[in-house]
Design goal:
Helix content: 25-40%
Largest sheet: 9 strands, mixed
Structural class: alpha/beta
């Protein structure tokens, strides 16, 4: 999408209203170059309909007709003073109409994320200097050569193999290694590109534009923002390394839905094998200042606190290189699939192709015959195979199955997102929330709020500037800038909700997936209780000011003498509907779930689609319900088992239990 002059002028006026600078040391969004960044991010959106919608809004924005929509009368937005433009935007956020609230939230995110991520002409933004934020760490001149050697098609490709794996993240990477270790000829096809240590500088703009699916993403109703990885190694390259085994009560729940293997020793052995291959440990779990705040508050309340296990080795968990896990690990410490399972697979003969967007699984006479994809340059990639493993993640896998003609009504249904929000606090001490190990402490004190097995988990995460602004209210440019200047003294507690109710992944006319999801009443109630719990943790830890992610701007000041109960009541009154509170989809699960029958699931207990017996799903979309914890270990354990069973059906390995082969592959010794 390339904006015309009128549309670009409108985008400029919007961005400069959200971020006008101070007229002295701090530049406006346009002066910094953030408007071009915002335009580029919007233009990368794969959905043409959404790009056209944005272009239409920008084309109307500075007209008198749009002034009536904004409530400023028949006047042009750009003709107003800064003060009146800010008032118009705040009125948009406070409107009763959800559409207006969501429009404000989307514009705010586009403007502020771009503003705080943009390095500016000098490469070091004055905003970062004002906040005390050090900016990107820089590219490593001494970075080792990348361990993988994927092929990037420069012409049409037509190859044959035993199994083609679509996707290379936690599920696809693990499945590829298991299948190749069984002696099968495997081809891995990945939509994203390959990036390794030397490509990571710890900067937000570099990480966001290279490693994640392009374009603004979110649920269609505008209630949750969504980020999904798009690179070789998928989510394991950008996740926070937090490693939980699947909780026992979740395994029991899934077994009752027809996948009885979740309570067997075979699944225990699969988790053991994954744990070992990833080298999961607590040796690199030194608490950052923000995790120390979480731990301090929990201890003072007498609530449960635990140390997180992580799949890292040689991590600088107390230094400046950590806190950037979401943008790739420049130290090479994170044991992503690109460092582990995919390396095993390639060593055993697997071929890896990157930059290939697989649009369909080819099906003939009731069986899959391979896949067809295209490159950005228009080359066709055809992979002929005896079986297909779909592992594109919970957004892309159901879309792929639907585009390929599968009609089971559960494909795309039962989507879970672990809706998450955050409660923030200012402390007298320096927190520098962007520093230190990305996550090392947690609490499951309220993981079972009402006896249902559903509730919330408390964690923190590194707070870099652009990643923080979507969770902070905007009630005017000066007030927002003042909050961001305090970022070095801000801590937060994340509230991760195990959602009991679900959404859906649909496929639009253009073939792209669309997520539909709104918080149910009972899940919203649990999130509300989590927000209250997070506020109490921060108060107990000594916060001087506490504020939530509500756009209405709900603030508690210790010095005011107001009770924390009053703050909690005001936060609940501010609401959790679209545009009311910043909520993110933290983990995407369940959209092609496993189960005991085609009436209630998309795939059988071994991940096989009910309609086509040689299509196997091996990613988080297989989860029967939400797992309630960071899902990487669960994804890889399911992929490990589903791939073993596929190999057995293809006659490459005996149908033995995973307990007979818990040792990691030979190349795992480095982990």
């Amino acid at each position: 999408m390339e904006l015309n002059a009128k549309q670009r002028a409108a985008l400029t006026s919007i961005c400069d209203t959200f971020a006008p600078g101070d007229g002295a040391d701090i530049p406006s969004a346009s002066a910094l170059g953030a408007v071009a960044v915002a335009e580029g991010m919007a233009g990368a959106n794969p959905r043409e309909a959404e790009k056209k919608q944005l272009a239409t809004i920008l084309g109307l924005w500075n007209t008198r007709l749009w002034g009536l929509f904004l409530g400023i009368g028949p006047r042009r937005f750009a003709d107003l003073s800064q003060e009146k433009r800010e008032a118009a935007l705040i009125a948009l956020s406070d409107a009763k109409m959800p559409l207006k609230k969501v429009l404000f939230a989307n514009l705010k995110a586009a403007a502020t994320v771009s503003y705080y991520a943009t390095p500016g002409p000098t490469g070091t933004s004055p905003l970062w200097t004002a906040m005390g934020y050090p900016g990107p760490r820089g590219f490593r001149a001494d970075a080792p050569q990348p361990p993988l050697h994927p092929q990037v098609p420069t012409a049409d490709v037509d190859v044959t193999c035993d199994v083609v794996v679509v996707g290379s993240g936690a599920g696809g990477g693990t499945a590829a290694a298991v299948l190749t270790s069984a002696g099968l000829d495997v081809v891995v096809v990945e939509k994203g590109r390959y990036y390794d240590d030397r490509d990571f500088d710890g900067g937000e703009i570099n990480g966001l534009t290279k490693l994640y699916a392009p374009g603004p993403q979110g649920t269609a109703e505008g209630q949750l923002s969504v980020l999904s990885a798009e690179c070789l190694g998928g989510g394991t390259v950008v996740n926070y390394t937090t490693s939980f085994r699947t909780p026992d009560h979740v395994r029991a729940e899934w077994a009752k839905l027809g996948v009885t293997g979740f309570t067997d020793a075979e699944y225990d052995a699969a988790m053991d094998a994954v744990w070992e291959r990833l080298g999961v440990n607590t040796d690199h779990s030194t608490p950052s200042a923000r995790d120390a705040i979480l731990e301090r508050g929990l201890n003072r309340l007498g609530w449960q606190v635990g140390t997180l296990s992580r799949n890292v080795h040689g991590c600088d968990d107390a230094g400046l290189d950590c806190g950037r896990c979401g943008f790739g690990c420049r130290l090479g410490a994170k044991k992503s699939t690109a460092k582990t399972w995919l390396a095993d697979a390639e060593e055993a003969g697997a071929r890896i192709f990157t930059g290939v967007n697989v649009r369909t699984i080819d099906v003939a006479n009731g069986r899959a015959t391979g896949v067809t994809g295209t490159t950005a340059d228009g080359h066709t990639v055809t992979v002929r195979a005896k079986a297909v493993v779909a592992a594109g993640g919970s957004i892309q896998t159901p879309a792929l199955l639907k585009r390929s003609g599968l009609t089971n009504p559960n494909i795309g249904k039962h989507l879970r997102l672990h809706p998450a929000t955050a409660v923030w606090a200012e402390f007298d001490e320096q927190v520098r929330p962007w520093e230190g190990a990305i996550q090392t402490r947690y609490s499951d004190e309220h993981s079972d709020i009402d006896g249902s097995g559903y509730g919330v988990v408390y964690e923190t995460a590194a707070a870099n500037p652009a990643g923080s602004v979507p969770f902070l209210s905007w009630r005017g440019a000066d007030a927002h800038a003042a909050t961001m200047r305090k970022l070095g003294r801000l801590g937060h507690v994340g509230v991760i909700t195990r959602d009991q109710d679900s959404g859906e992944v649909e496929v639009a006319k253009d073939g792209e997936p669309v997520l539909h999801y709104t918080l149910s009443d009972r899940d919203r109630s649990r999130m509300e209780q989590g927000v209250a719990g997070a506020a109490r943790i921060l108060e107990a830890a000594g916060a001087k000011t506490i504020f939530s992610g509500h756009q209405a701007g709900v603030v508690w000041e210790r010095a005011s003498g107001e009770s924390l109960d009053s703050f909690v009541e005001r936060a609940h009154a501010a609401g959790y509907g679209p545009g009311q509170c910043a909520i993110a989809a933290l983990h995407i699960m369940g959209s092609a779930r496993m189960g005991g029958s085609p009436d209630m699931s998309a795939v059988d207990p071994e991940g096989v689609t009910w309609e086509v017996p040689n299509i196997v799903v091996a990613d988080a979309s297989t989860f029967p319900t939400s797992c309630g914890v960071n899902p990487m270990i669960t994804i890889e354990s399911i992929a490990y088992l589903n791939a073993r069973k596929l190999a057995a059906r293809l006659g490459s390995v005996p149908a033995a239990s995973a307990a007979e082969e818990t040792a990691a592959p030979e190349s795992a010794s480095a982990a």
